[in-house]
Amino acid sequence: MHYAQQEYSVRLQWGLPAVQHLSAQAAHCVIVDVLSFGTSVDIACGNGAEVLPYRYRTTGAADFASEQQAILAAERSHHQPSLSPASLCGLRAGSRLVLPSQNGAALSLISESANTVAACLRNAAAVADYLETMGGDVLLVAAGELDADGRLRFAYEDFIGAGAIIQRLRRGKSPEALAAEAAFELARHDLERQLQFTASGAELAARGFQDDIVLAAQLNISACVPVLDDGAFRAGRELAAA
């Protein structure tokens, strides 16, 4: 399995196939979904809430939320907790949020790594510092986007989000990881504009969710490291972001 990049300590692959086939081989699996699951999880967990990932548009979500004494997030809304990061800024400490998404949540649920982390641009430095402290090999999974027919599509925002983490890691990096690092270095001084003109960003702006792009483009402002434990992301460890 040549695409596994097993000879490197820091690896990068895309979407569902990567998690299905490679996550069990990595000490750490980092799910990077900048627009918007990873950013939403960072904001919610940073506020002291717990996030329970759930499969997108599957039955039983309301019943599951009730059983877990949790809020069920809407798909995207200005007025209630949802997959919109801006809608979660006021989420209270101690809240539990069931958060369905077709990319980040779905990938989190099938990860077989001993340690699964949600990441974005906001917490890139904190996640990288956490990984350096923990040691062990790292699989970064850029979530990507799914087309209507279910095919995985390249998502530039997840590529540079992974690169923001990779550039702080001091271990052997695969060529794919180095490419993401280089892309981030080119984009890092213009992140909001870069995200604005991605396919996902343009769609969000057209729907009136410009605030989500602004939040997602903020680099290294969060010290939250959301770690998946018993089906929920919690702020597993906080380190000073640089």
Summarize the helices and strands and which ones pair or pack.
Blueprint: E1 10-14, H1 15-22, E2 28-32, H2 37-46, E3 50-55, H3 61-67, E4 71-72, E5 96-101, H4 104-110, E6 116-119, H5 124-134, E7 138-142, E8 145-146, E9 152-153, H6 156-166, H7 175-187, H8 191-196, H9 199-206, H10 210-216, E10 224-229, E11 232-238
Parallel strand pairs: 1-7, 2-6, 2-7, 3-5, 4-5
Antiparallel strand pairs: 8-9, 10-11
Helix pairs in contact: 1-4, 5-6, 6-7, 9-10
Give an account of the 3D structure.
The chain is an alpha/beta fold and 242 residues long. The protein is 36% helix and 21% strand. It has helices at residues 15-22, 37-46, 61-67, 104-110, 124-134, 156-166, 175-187, 191-196, 199-206, 210-216; strands at 10-14, 28-32, 50-55, 71-72, 96-101, 116-119, 138-142, 145-146, 152-153, 224-229, 232-238. A 4-stranded parallel β-sheet has the order 1-7-2-6, sandwiched between helices. Helix 5 packs across helix 6 (156-166) and helix 9 (199-206) packs antiparallel against helix 10. It comes from Chromobacterium indicum.
